[in-house]
Amino acid sequence: MSKKYNIPTFLKYINVKGTSSDSMQVIHYDEHKDILLKSEPVELDFYLIAIKSNIDVQPPIEEMSASYLFLDGPGNLLEWDLAGSFLGYGIFISEKLLKKYAKDYTFTGYNRHEALYLTERESRILLDLFKKAHDEYNQVDFSEDVVASYTTLILSYTQNFYERQFQSRSKIYNQVVVNFYRDLDNYYTHQGDGEQAFPTVVYFAERNNLSVNYFGDLIKHFTGKSPLEHIHQYIIQVAKEKLRQTKFTVNEIAYSLGFEYPTYFTRFFRSKTGISPKAYRNQ
């Protein structure tokens, strides 16, 4: 089981000298050359927003700067294995201070440490905000509200920059959409007609090695529908085929689609089509 860290204990773990405050810390990575470069998974109980350069991220993206933004939240598992020290800034801020703002952005739920690849312009904008937050934090009578405001402004820009990343990497991300449709079409085909698990967004996200929120935002961006909408549409399609083309009972069809109880299937089918499975079969 991974160890859980608050802000002071995490900074101590990565060899960064900080205060005992568990509310927030802002550091300039350039000033910490002995930072820990390799770690097994550790769990955070705070938000970590960092801009980093001089760091290898795979795969490299053409026409991008050498800077990347990372955001990890409470409950996330973080592990790393870096070749050498890196540059940039990190804002460590408690869940209590940021949660009410973070909940408005789906990317704060990305839990696989997905990097935001920054253009030169985006890098300049965010570096300026990180530097201002760092400068404020280093004042004797610094204001937590001011640092939190800079952090929320970084989140606002990040939302726009993720939209740009989805579009600029459309060739790569369109393949994720293709993979999703393929996996969806094959879900029941490869598992037969017996009882099986209900298809979930988590399953398809993991098939693409993406966090659920990142996967969801990507699919919604390129198709106009959320993964859950696609899954529900597919289940109805398969259910209709089974009702029309097989002699399975409604109960057997319900179990074959992953429903725990046939009544759940009937309720689901009616909510999506306006009629019951039995009425559909008898049309």
Characterize the structure shown.
The protein is of the alpha+beta class and 283 residues long. The chain folds into two domains: 4-168, Jelly Rolls (Sandwich); 171-281, Orthogonal Bundle (Arc Repressor Mutant, subunit A). The protein contains eleven helices and eight strands. α5 packs across α7, α6 (201-207) packs across α7 (212-223) and α9 (250-256) packs across α10 (262-273). The longest helix has 25 residues, at 144-168.
Q: What about the largest sheet?
A: 5 strands, antiparallel
Order of helices and strands: EHEEEEEEHEHHHHHHHHH
What is the strand tally? 8
Number of helices: 11
Secondary-structure arrangement, i.e. CATH architecture of the largest domain: Sandwich
CATH top level of the largest domain is: Mainly Beta
Return the CATH topology of the largest domain. Answer: Jelly Rolls
Largest beta sheet: what is the strand line-up?
2-7-4-5-8
